Amino acid sequence: MREALRRIGAIASKEFIHIRRDPRIMIAVLVMPTIQLLLFAYAISFDVSDVPTILLDGDRTTASREYLAAYEQSDFFNVVGRVESQQAIDDAFDRSTARIAVMVRPGFGEALARGEKASVAVLVDGSEPNSAQLGQAYATALNQALGRELTFEYLERQAIDPTRAGGITPFIRTWYNPERRSADFLVPGLMVVVIMIVTVQQTAVTLVKEKEQGTFEQILVSPIRRGELMLGKVSPWVLLGVIDMLVVTLVAIFLFGVPLRGDVLTLGVATFLFVLCSLGIGLLVSARASSVEVANLVALLISFLPGFMLSGFAFPLHSIPRFLQVVSYAFPGRYMVTVTRTVFLKGGSFSILWPQIGALALYAVVSLTLASVLYSRRPD
Predict the structure, then answer these.
(1) Which residues have CB under 8 Å from 86's CB, separation 6+?
(2) Domain assignment of residue 300, given as a range
(3) Are residues 133 and 200 in the same domain?
(4) I want to staple 299 with a disulfide (CB 3.0 to 4.6 A). Which of 204, 220, 314, 380 is the partner?
(5) pLDDT tens string 122-135
């Protein structure tokens, strides 16, 4: 056992020396994750506000002006102008100067005075589905609120007590993210994607370099076992990966204000296992890649695309095709995104997240073992 630890330590020391001698690696591993987190977190946002909106008042009455004023006072709608015709609305949509158009038809004020329903057209540009969906929801909610106010005014004019009228009043609460900030949803998942990309890509070239530098044959004839080689190779990267995760966690908490409500120890254990999983994937690529260029390309494809598409980071997994849902189980990002969001936002602990942590542990053992087996069968 002591000899095995000595051999593992020798390989780890050798790997540390290679990392220390190349400052580009230190920058890529310790600085780039933070930069990527900042870039992605600020660039990717599901928060929608100040949607360009134009107004068309075809009635020109006090009632229509008061109605359109509600859009001007809203934080969601950014009224960029008023138009005089339907053609002007089409032109604004074509030029992308407006995403929503509100059109009040003639007779709006007279219909309200008679206690009748007045029709209003809300046109939404569907070329941006997210803005279109939210715009439709906000416009519906705004009109419902105004409709209730008009109903109360009509009942009061009829000498009817509005408080005695029947109805349903919903009280809606949003748990875990009451302000519905997209940063609270995106940043915990983005941390996982960034760390996975960096660790997989950096370790994907480590075994390939052994062959290109001519040390592959020396390792083959040395007393070092394949498992010891894998452990020695991943030891420095485990330390760097954990440091990366610690840095991006601090950035998420203090810069983006993401709350950390759960068990820190659970997050730490899951982070350690996730880094091992990512390193295992990188070593699998490195064990079979024919060159550094091939290893870099394959590592980028394996880490980047599944990290974004199949981890639940940006898209709910239940909304993707069933086949891809099954494929997502083959990537550790799926489990780690669940862990980070549950620990950060829901206050989760090991008693809740043990299935995901167990899956990460199994994944780490299988990937590192398989990388060791594949490397031992590598052609000369």
Answers:
(1) 56, 103
(2) 2-45+181-376
(3) no
(4) 204
(5) 888 776 666 667 77
